[in-house]
Amino acid sequence: xxxxxxxxxxxxxxxxxxxxxxxxxxxxxxxxxxxxxxxxxxxxxxxxxxxxxxxxxxxxxxxxxxxxxxxxxxxxxxxxxxxxxxxxxxxxxxxxxxxxxxxxxxxxxxxxxxxxxxxxxxxxxxxxxxxxxxxxxxxxxxxxxxxxxxxxxxxxxxxxxxxxxxxxxxxxxxxxxxxxxxxxxxxxxxxxxxxxxxxxxxxxx
Length: 205
Fold this sequence. Notes:
Blueprint: E1 3-6, H1 17-24, H2 32-43, H3 48-54, H4 60-71, H5 75-88, H6 93-104, E2 109-113, H7 117-126, E3 135-138, H8 139-142, H9 149-159, E4 166-170, H10 173-181, E5 185-188, H11 192-201
Parallel strand pairs: 1-2, 1-4, 2-3, 4-5
């Protein structure tokens, strides 16, 4: 039996930035192409400024100021995006159901998530099922972020498991690849049903 480690965004919580931008900046993100453009400009594929935010190295006002300088957007527009993210992270019902079954079955559950500090605080405060995890690592609290190897090493040490005792569920390919390179078992998550089927096929459930 392996210990299962969940990512949050895209695994337990919906995360679809084009939809977010079309909702909060409709004058700019008015179709699929313009939404994709502004996703790249604002989130930088989670590198650059946004990765610094993920790592807890920038406060919300600092990330807003940096995006304004870099993109030319109005501060009010960027602030709306930053403020809207927590409510965009809504639980995925099928994933929470899988988590519940594992929790009620007595499995030790862990998480490893890139998450800026204010968003991590929000998720812990608003969603009781976060309390089902025995432990977890948010990027902002350790000042490292996926897919850098350092955060996986920090997590394995904190969890008290050898990498090959862990199964990581993540929706982002580079994170899965880094985990595997470091000796973790890892599945590329698409939906809960697929992940559960793969876990069973490999004898991990």
